[in-house]
């Protein structure tokens, strides 16, 4: 690289930095070749081809190869394909932005999750959010085309409150319109990123600033992409819990040490609060689950129970599933236990695949199942042996909230958003809307800033 003629480097610089119009570049090149006054630069004639090739990358990044001088789309890298990341990506994509979404899980959705298994086709277990509410117009507008496409539909199940101290069952009224995703809970997010470059099973383990670009790196330090904007859609990437789960410092914490200006964004993430939840999930053939099908609810919220906070029943074809959600207090007792089938456990297998952790997992499952069996017995339902499960899953940040709104640095082209952005307290079914609004609001700010610069 250092041996190439200075003429090649000169032309590549000219080609790369003529940002306003490729036509101007052509004029300069023609002058260099044709005008006799430039005869002392005759060697450029031999270097011109090589120089243009070398400068093509810079020119391509700076402008479109048309006579109009139209700029290439803004490049935005998004970390996380939960509701916030997918809503943000959809709005940016619709505005012509070049968006790439990186998600360490198997697919989009985050806590709008559905577990399936090849062993039992047709069985679908919604082990995250079973439904969500919509109150704000911006969120309803986002949902409208998804409802028309059948990816989102009104929730028609029955939601109840159960006081475990005397088993009083009362219908629960939710604020706003209630929805669910179809056919699976993650279908909404998958539809939002339709046409977007979404890279699943890809963990962003490092972020660096090189010139005017953000460079994202994978777990093996391989470069994932370069972007003008970087958006992180989960507080965990900058929270101490990241190190607890994956065994190394949070990527945003490391980044802020190199880019002190980002401390104003990263440091508030430490103050984000979250309520963890443990979930025991299992599946049954409907033919063997008459008692489960006879339960007078689809979602039950429990009070005065030390172990359980919610029970969710979901039907899918010839199958029915149950998910028993723990209380946050129960989950905090076992904050170092993760389900062996979870993404966290698989990405940090050396940390969570030990025999000791498996024994703890079995202990947690046993306690959850004991409480679940006892509850159903009081409701005159005998729990049959499941053909799938029970399987344990931990939602380490099931419900997040913060007094600090996430910030955006337009100069650096960096921002953070998520469900915690719109919540100062836990809203069980308002979190999906909060996440979406956070992503939509941030997308508007990015678009406003990018237009102001054009």
Average predicted confidence as pLDDT: 84
Shape: globular
Structural class: alpha+beta
Strand content: 15-25%
Helix run count? 15
Largest sheet descriptor: 7 strands, mixed
Residue share in helices? 25-40%
Question: Could you name the ranges where pLDDT drops below 50 across 5 or more consecutive residues?
Answer: 11-68
Describe the structure.
By secondary structure, the chain is an alpha+beta fold. The chain is built from 15 helices and 21 strands. It has helices at 6-17, 22-34, 43-62, 83-94, 137-148, 187-192, 240-246, 251-258, 263-266, 290-293, 328-333, 343-347, 349-352, 355-378, 431-453, and strands at residues 75-79, 98-103, 115-116, 124-125, 132-134, 152-154, 159-163, 168-171, 177-181, 197-200, 206-210, 213-217, 223-227, 229-232, 273-285, 299-303, 308-316, 319-326, 388-401, 408-409, 414-416. The strands form five sheets. It has a seven-stranded mixed beta sheet. A six-stranded mixed beta sheet has the order 10-2-1-14-21-20, covered by helices on one side. The chain is globular. The model is unreliable at 11-68 (pLDDT under 50).
């Amino acid at each position: 690289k250092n041996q190439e003629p200075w003429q090649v480097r000169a032309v590549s610089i000219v080609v790369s930095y003529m940002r306003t119009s490729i036509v101007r570049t052509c004029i300069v090149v023609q002058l260099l070749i044709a005008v006799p006054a430039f005869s002392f630069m005759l060697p450029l004639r031999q270097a011109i081809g090589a120089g243009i090739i070398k400068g093509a990358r810079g020119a391509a990044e700076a402008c479109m190869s048309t006579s109009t001088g139209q700029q290439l789309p803004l490049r935005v890298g998004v970390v996380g394909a939960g509701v916030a990341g997918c809503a943000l990506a959809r709005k940016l994509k619709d505005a012509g932005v070049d968006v790439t979404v990186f998600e360490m899980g198997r697919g989009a959705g985050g806590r709008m999750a559905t577990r399936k298994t090849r062993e039992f086709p047709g069985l679908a277990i919604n082990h995250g959010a079973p439904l969500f509410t919509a109150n704000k117009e911006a969120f309803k507008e986002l949902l409208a085309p998804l409802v028309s496409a059948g990816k989102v539909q009104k929730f028609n199940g029955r939601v109840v409150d159960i006081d475990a101290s005397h088993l009083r069952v009362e219908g629960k009224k939710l604020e706003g319109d209630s929805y669910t995703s179809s056919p699976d809970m993650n279908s909404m997010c998958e539809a939002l990123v339709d046409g977007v470059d979404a890279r699943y099973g890809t963990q962003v383990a490092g972020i660096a600033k090189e010139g005017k670009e953000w460079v994202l790196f994978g777990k093996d330090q391989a470069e994932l992409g370069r972007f003008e904007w970087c958006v992180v859609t989960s507080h965990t990437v900058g929270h101490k819990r990241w190190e607890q789960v994956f065994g190394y410092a949070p990527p945003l914490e490391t980044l802020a040490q190199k880019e002190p200006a980002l401390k104003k964004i990263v440091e508030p993430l430490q103050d984000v609060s979250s309520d963890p939840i443990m979930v025991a999930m299992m599946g049954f053939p409907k033919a063997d689950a008459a008692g489960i099908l006879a339960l007078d609810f689809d979602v039950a919220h429990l009070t005065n129970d030390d172990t359980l906070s919610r029970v969710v029943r979901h039907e899918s074809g010839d199958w029915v599933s149950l998910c028993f959600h723990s209380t946050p207090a129960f989950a905090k007792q076992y904050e170092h236990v993760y389900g062996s089938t979870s993404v966290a456990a698989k990405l940090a297998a050396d940390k969570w695949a030990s025999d000791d952790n498996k024994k703890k997992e079995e202990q947690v499952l046993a306690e959850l199942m004991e409480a679940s069996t006892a509850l159903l017995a009081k409701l005159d339902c005998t729990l049959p042996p499941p053909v799938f499960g029970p399987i344990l899953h931990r939602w380490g940040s099931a419900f997040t909230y913060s007094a600090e709104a996430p910030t955006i640095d337009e100069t650096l082209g960096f921002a953070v958003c998520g469900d915690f952005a719109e919540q100062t307290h836990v809203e069980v079914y308002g979190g999906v809307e909060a996440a979406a609004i956070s992503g939509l609001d941030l997308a508007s700010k990015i678009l406003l800033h990018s237009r102001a610069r054009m």
